[in-house]
Structure formats: structure tokens, C-alpha cells
Amino acid sequence: MRYLSTRGEAPARRFTEILLEGLASDGGLYVPESFPTMELSRLRTRSYPELAHAILSHFMDDVPDLTGIVGRTYTPANFGSGEITPLKTLEPGLHLLALSNGPTLAFKDIAMQLLGNLFEEILKKKNQTLNILGATSGDTGSAAEHAMRGKQRINVFMLSPHGRMSAFQRAQMYSLQEPNIHNLALKGAFDDCQDVVKKVNADAAFKARYRIGAVNSINWARIAAQVVYYFKGYFAATKSDAQSVSFAVPSGNFGNIYAGYVARSMGLPVHKLILASNENDVLDEFFRTGRYRVRKSALATSSPSMDISKASNFERYVFDLLGRDSSRVGKLFSSSDEFDLSKFPRTGFASGRSFHADRISTIKSIHDKYGVTIDPHTADGVTVGLAHREPGVPLVCLETALPAKFAETIREALGQAPARPAGFENLEQLPQRFEVIEPDDEAVKRYIAAHAS
Predict the structure, then answer these.
(1) At CA 397, angle to CA 217 and CA 428, rounded to 5?
(2) Of 56, 208, 283, 432, which has the highest C-beta tally within 10 A?
């Protein structure tokens, strides 16, 4: 499998090359030359590690011992059970796909645990080191840091928006004391963090000198790993490969739902991909109108991991929407924060917005009706998913985090704090280690230069 840049000016690369590179040298994102077609009948009865290997082997065909890496990643010790992503049926035809049983209680663990093991294996083979630069709106940072903590040959420099994550999310990241973990709290929003990451990556000389890599979903390995649970959720929700399913997906940076788009492109019978935005509704506006219009700044909401106005993975989707015309994609994303693609059919998607009052109401109604507590982001997905539910089509809502991470909102909705898994009881009381920094790429580069191995 070879990978192309969405902007067409970087050379085609193999997976182990793009794994360590992140963004392409021309500022684009890597995508496969083509999507493989999967035979559903040969996958339905496989265990999660077997299913993951069957899918990932198409995208990662130059990885030594991929079977061993996948087997070490998807274990009951890491994810609580052999199911890895168990399906919770609320009522016939309405399901939650539980993606948040990993070490940091968020769906990001599914891909990040694999990414950590891939990095470790490839760096060892190449006798190289890597300095990972990432941006987080809440969950990516903790998932990446817990996957990379203590690993030799790897340093992590994670940018987060100062004061805009939940106390639980901050503590998960900032309480880590491993010397290879560096938390930088930027004075600004997530979009500022993401912009800094892109600017640092655009400095080719600096990127090469300090071997800068990526763990955000700009890294194709993240997308590929997330494709797997769409297949897993589909098989769990259906009895026949002729049945189609809709997935409701809380969406901020477009990576999670883009993985569903890839799964459908590989032959999974997806009826609709239902995109749920919060008050930051750039993506919902696009799928309703065809107009992409980045806001000057993201609003702070009670589903903070979706407080994003520039969705990085959206460029991958537009690349296909425009017939893989890399020249046009490059012009659109390098010259403007606003463009109109309403003439192009956006088939297979539905979308909607969920506000604070909606998520509070949905958390309460799901708890009262089914005895299940969901987090605010999952509530956004359920709210919008139910609005687009169709008779005879199973609806699978993707759970993105456990409610323990957002106690303030759960307390508002239910009048009580959510249960905490064992080991997280006193998380916020642990000593925290982080540095507040200006949203300036030169300041971040100076910090990396001073602390890189």
C-alpha cells in the first residue's frame, strides 16, 4: 500500500514512512492510493484482534510482526474484556458502541494504544528517536501520553488549551510525571494549539532536525485503527451481511466519522453516517449547505472535546469529494478558511447540532429510560442520531468517553456525580506538572529544542 498527500506535491510513501512523519511535507494529509474491499462473510465471527489484523494488514503491509503488535494491544488487560468495544443494546434497533474502556476512559485509546506499540517497534528497527508534537481538546492528549509514557526513544510534547478542559481531563495529563511527557498549556483555544502544530510541521528543517512526529488523527494510523470498530459494531448490531446500519458520531476534528467513511468505502453497509456537532457547528453547516466556513474562534461548551472550528481530517474527505484533485484541494485549504462545495453531492451523510440544554436532557432521558449514564459528547451523538433515526435501520451511537470525565455536567443533568472506575478516585488531587505558554510556534520550537532527546 502506498500513500498520497491530499495536496499532491509530496512523494508517495509506504506506511512505515508516513507513520513517523505525520503531516506530508507539502502540508497535506496522507491517504491510501485506494481503499481495499473487505469480504464481510469472512470477518463476522472473528475476535477483535483477528478483525483488526485482517483490516490493518491492508494499510500496514510493511510493518514487521503486525500480528504480534495487534495482539499485544487489544487485550482484556488494556480494555477490560476480550470484546474490546462491546455493544450495549438500549432497545431493539438502538445501540451504544462502548469505545471508552481503555486506560484513559475515552475512544482515543483504541487507536492510541496501537500507535504507541507501532512507534516502539518501528523506532527500534530503525534505531531512531521521535519527538511527538500533538494538540488536544481533551481526550487525545491523555490517550497519547498514557500510550507513550516511559517508552524509550519517544518524547511527547502535548499542547492543550489553558483552562478549557474538564478538571478530570487536565489531571489525567498533567499528573503524569514521566520525564518523556511534556504538557504545554497554550493561552488560547484548541484551534490555536492545532495551528501551532501545523506551523511547526511546516518548518521542514526543524521537523527533520528534531524528528517531529504526530499522534493527532492527522496520522493515518489513527484513522486505520478506528475503522476496525465500525466493522465490529456492524457485526454486533446485525445478523445478516445484507442489513445496513446507521452510525451517529459526535464530531469535532472529523477523524472519528471519517473512519466510518473509510469503512463504508471498504464495503461496510453503512446507510447513513450521522454527524453530531455541538455549538461549534462548522461541520454541520457544511453537510447541510455545502458551505465550509471556519469561525474565528471556537466556543467553550460542556462537550469540550468538540470545541473545534477547524477540522483537520475534513481535508481527506474533500480530497475524495473533489475526485482526488490534489491541486484544487491544496488551493482550497492553503488560501482560505471559507469555500462553497454545494454543487458536489454529500451523499451518505446526515448532520445536526446539539446544544447544552439538549445534552442535559438527553443524559437524563437515557438514564431514566435505560438506566445508562452517558457523557456529554455521547449525548450530542445520541441527540442528533435520534433525530435522524429511520424505521428498520439499526442505529449505533458511538460512545466517546465515560461520564466520570465530565462530573460537573452529569451532576447538572442527574443531580449526582457519575461513578468513577477503580483507580481514578483521587485523580485531581495528584501533583500536576505543566507549563503555560503563548500560542506561538517559535516559543514551542524553543521548548522542544531545549527538551528533545
Answers:
(1) 65
(2) 283
C-alpha separations of 439 from 135, 142, 196, 421 in Å: 12, 20, 7, 35
Domain with 379 in it: 81-106+220-414
Q: Are strands 291-293 and 270-277 parallel, antiparallel or unpaired?
A: unpaired
- Number of structural domains in the chain: 1
23/219 Cα distance (integer angstroms)? 7
Q: Residue 401 pairs with which residues in a beta bridge?
A: 106
Residue 53 lies in a domain: no
Residue 433 grid coordinates: 506538572
Give the closest residue to 350 by CA, choosing from 251, 210, 419. 251
User: Nearest Cα to 159, choosing from 122, 191, 129, 130?
Assistant: 191
Residue whose grid cell is 532527546 = 453
- 254 domain residue, yes or no: yes
Per-residue pLDDT tens digits for 155-164: 999 999 999 9
Q: Quick check: is 226 in a domain?
A: yes
CA dist 22 and 35 (Å) reads 20
324 CB burial (10 A radius; 0-12, 13-18, 19+): middle
DSSP label of 40: G
Residue owning grid cell 470477518: 43
> Dmax over Cα atoms in the chain, in whole Å?
58
In a domain, 406, yes or no: yes
Could you write out the three-class secondary structure of 168-180? Answer: HHHHHHHCCCCCC
The C-alpha atoms of residue 287 and residue 258 are separated, in whole angstroms, by: 13
Residue 3 has which C-alpha cell?
A: 500513500
108 a catalytic residue = yes
CATH number (domain holding residue 238): 3.40.50.1100
Q: Whole-model pTM?
A: 0.93
Q: Let me know: does 107 contact 400? Beta carbons within 8 Å.
A: yes
Nearest Cα residue to 308 out of 264, 256, 349? 256
Give start and end residues of each alpha helix (H) in 149-203: 167-174, 190-202
For residues 314 and 255, what is the distance between their CA atoms, to the nearest angstrom? Answer: 8
Q: Which of 108, 207, 272, 310 is catalytic?
A: 108
Encode pLDDT of 366-416 as tens digits: 999 999 999 999 999 999 999 999 999 999 999 999 999 999 999 999 999
pLDDT of 180-231, one tens digit each? 999 999 999 988 998 999 899 889 899 999 999 988 888 999 999 999 999 9
- Of 318, 310, 306, 275, whose CA–CA distance to 401 is shortest? 306
